Amino acid sequence: MAAGSGLQLDRDGRLVHLLTLEGLPAATIRSILDTAEPFASIGEREVKKVPLLRGKAVFNLFFENSTRTRTTFEIAAKRLSADVINLNIGASSTSKGETLLDTIDNLVAMNADMFVVRHAQSGAAHLIASHLAAAGHSHVHVINAGDGRHGHPTQGLLDLYTIRHYKRDFGALAVAVVGDVLHSRVARSLIHGLTTLGVPDVRVIGPKTLVPARVESLGVSVHHDMDRGLDGCDVVVMLRLQNERMKGALLPSSGEFFKHYGLTADKLARAKPDAIVMHPGPMNRGVEIESSVADGLQSVILKQVTFGIAVRMAVMTMVAAA
Amino acid sequence: MAAGSGLQLDRDGRLVHLLTLEGLPAATIRSILDTAEPFASIGEREVKKVPLLRGKAVFNLFFENSTRTRTTFEIAAKRLSADVINLNIGASSTSKGETLLDTIDNLVAMNADMFVVRHAQSGAAHLIASHLAAAGHSHVHVINAGDGRHGHPTQGLLDLYTIRHYKRDFGALAVAVVGDVLHSRVARSLIHGLTTLGVPDVRVIGPKTLVPARVESLGVSVHHDMDRGLDGCDVVVMLRLQNERMKGALLPSSGEFFKHYGLTADKLARAKPDAIVMHPGPMNRGVEIESSVADGLQSVILKQVTFGIAVRMAVMTMVAAA
Amino acid sequence: MAAGSGLQLDRDGRLVHLLTLEGLPAATIRSILDTAEPFASIGEREVKKVPLLRGKAVFNLFFENSTRTRTTFEIAAKRLSADVINLNIGASSTSKGETLLDTIDNLVAMNADMFVVRHAQSGAAHLIASHLAAAGHSHVHVINAGDGRHGHPTQGLLDLYTIRHYKRDFGALAVAVVGDVLHSRVARSLIHGLTTLGVPDVRVIGPKTLVPARVESLGVSVHHDMDRGLDGCDVVVMLRLQNERMKGALLPSSGEFFKHYGLTADKLARAKPDAIVMHPGPMNRGVEIESSVADGLQSVILKQVTFGIAVRMAVMTMVAAA
């Protein structure tokens, strides 16, 4: 059984934490996407607020710096009228020798309602959720905002939301995930979601050094030639080249990478004419993707960002109601 | 007369600033603890907010980094519906050559209502309060969130709240304060509070190098043998070993410290069977305290954190009403 | 035509962005000052909040650190009931290789309503406004909170507000701007505002090395002798000595500077008896200004800070309504 899946749902099948898309039932994923629908239009209102989390304390626990992800959760929580407290933990309590779980216990004692957790180590959010369960704090919820190489489930969900928004039916899609799959928690989360929702054709495209061994076991096909990999697909998901995450020299150069795996108009022409282009951001223009494609008609990259707020509002609302 | 006491109360005896527990009348301390009572249950409500400080601007002025303390004040202020502005001053105005009091004058000119001040130098909060008084800004309030070795009055108050919660009557208690008393502003504040409230038996336990000279003048007894010091006491307050505050080598090693002054189940057995165990946090497990004791049935360490929010809400509400 | 002026107003002459005072019509400046009047008294109310920007998302984008300026905008936005998100961009996305405009596109996709932008490079706010216009995001507004040496229009406006508050009529004033004019964006913004509002006598006073070449073309007179420059003036605006902005040794020493250009009671006696003394802060006491003058009866330095909140509230309200 997948790590985390046992903790995420309560006995009645309600979402208590969001830790991973691995093992999360298709019905739950669909329910999150459905819940996000009405939130997607709140951003266009004059008053972009609903009182669903009023008086709740949401803690952004970022053990790893990520202004971008933190901001999306902060906006989502504020639109739900929650009180948001940002904690960059790297420099504080842990440096005073307090353990992660002591920090959590303290924040629970301050009547925290929800933790949004970003951590460099895989399994950190899961560890916190296990600890809360063991301590009987079933009213406190954990949302994984990225843990090491393991997963980034809200990113996976917003990708799924975007694909559904443009393609409606998952049942006949070909989706290509391109680039540094090895270091990408985004890719892992997305692939789990796609296969769970029944996408029949998921393709991983990248150089041998950046495709994980045995990735086929996740139900995907592997391509090292990009043209062949993109052939006839409906969705192209470009991944960020995780320069800062790579140790040693797995790649000759970013120019060399772009030549083989950067998405250009020419390469994109191999996909279906109505294929959409996605990227989790931040983009390295000219490395993973040509600027004209990033800003082109098939790009839905900025819509992903908009939908990301709605999806995070949906997840927060659902766990708070559990 | 104790520093600060003259500034803390107005002519009618109302609390205007909270600078130190030294010299604060027993009636005022009791009034703070009484005011905190109803706030202690707000944290358990669905909507954890009351509108007592709505539209007030509370500035967290942290000249010294302390995420933990800042967070407790931020939560307290947000639960009171105040607008909270966090300023980490270390890196900003002061580096541009502005003096502390110029910074204060500027924030007052921005219509600040309250300053929560953390500073490495003893007397900083007192200096600010004196300056405000001299400038006629009697509507602006100062709460000391820790100043050098001097004091940490809200921590002292939450300790008193916790003791009262579990032991009801201060008049017959034996309280032991254990460890690095020399560097602990927590210890100073607590001892003042305990003696003011009439605790007849306050004991300080620690190695000679970590017990201040002439501490007996505060009305406490000194013990260097922990077993004897804990004998029959009702409350055991363990202090954090202030590693980062120590200059030079006053201690042989943390292992050596634990052997003599770390709280183990064996040592705790010398206290009364219903003795409570307290610690201001963050804990160094295995240095000041054994994990099984920290997490044991007699430990009220996490309740201290919960009560700390309520006490801070009480202090903020009282000074704002003065 | 002045850079930025074409973008600031829409076809109906309403303020859409505030980028520079250069080229901003006198009627618009007067309208901002008039709008600020009622906000100046909100700070004295019990509940310092109005719901004008409720549910709006204001992003403080500080690519350059400035706690002081950020705080004034944060307070202004919170008093208008906006949701404020602070982003210190230096350390985040840009370090991940994202461009400034990609960051902006992402935040717009998160349904940002307003950007308050501080940047070390001149023209940054203007670049963002141009980009938003090109992308058709006419509902998103930009306020320049300081860009390189170019301008700091809200500071200029609060200076104008202060002068009008004390002197009522701009039409007969002599205003002296003293010190490091070369590096001061404050000076540039103020001089544009003063000449636009018809101040007949604007004087720039400073050593040759700190007065820009051809500054006379802005409609000011230049003085290197301070006594003569201050003679009979109504308003003395002292500038901060931008130590951190100077490259190389343009000045002999701060002591030498004070001797010639520091504002002392003696030098101030050359101005009119009811002349007011201003400074944008933070002050270097004993460098630009003697403490007794900074704190003296003619000083309106702290009133500038108070009015600054009101002016920022006015600008935010006006652009949000456009």
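The mean pLDDT of chain C is 91.
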